Each structure stands twice: as C-alpha cells, then as structure tokens.
Amino acid sequence: MMGDYGGRMNGYGFGMMALGLLGCLISLIVIGLVVYYATKLALKHYHKDQQK
C-alpha cells in the first residue's frame, strides 16, 4: 500500500516538474520579449529626443 502511494506521488511529482520546467521556459521567453520590446521602444524614443 505504501509503495503504491509513493509510486503515484513520484509520477505526479515528475509530471508537475515537467510542467513547471515548461512554464519556466515560457515565462523566460515572455519576459525576454517584453524586455526586448521595451528596450527597443525606449531606444527609439531616446534617438528621437537626441535628433532634435
């Protein structure tokens, strides 16, 4: 009984870990894109200000 429960917990834990890893990757990509676009827009506005 205990072994069966432990096995199920391991399987569930692994599934959550894989999902967590995928979630981390998606979060990193989203954060990266947001930072990239924010920097790009900031630089665009910065260059416009410099040209005046």
Determine the strand fraction and express it as a percent band: under 5%
The helix count comes to 1
Give the termini distance in whole angstroms.
76 Å
Largest sheet: none
Shape: rod-shaped
Overall number of strands = 0
Instruction: Write the H/E string, N to C.
Output: H
Which residues sit in consecutive blocks of at least 5 with pLDDT less than 50? none
Cα radius of gyration in angstroms: 22 Å
Helix percent reads: over 70%
| Class inferred from helices and paired strands | mainly alpha
Residue-averaged pLDDT: 75
Secondary-structure map:
Blueprint lengths: L1 H50 L1
What features would you describe in this structure?
- This protein is mostly helical and 52 residues long.
- Helix content is 96%, strand content 0%.
- The model has no long low-confidence stretch (mean pLDDT 75).
Features:
mainly alpha; 0% strand; 52 residues; single chain; 1 helix
Gist of the model:
By secondary structure, this protein is mostly helical.
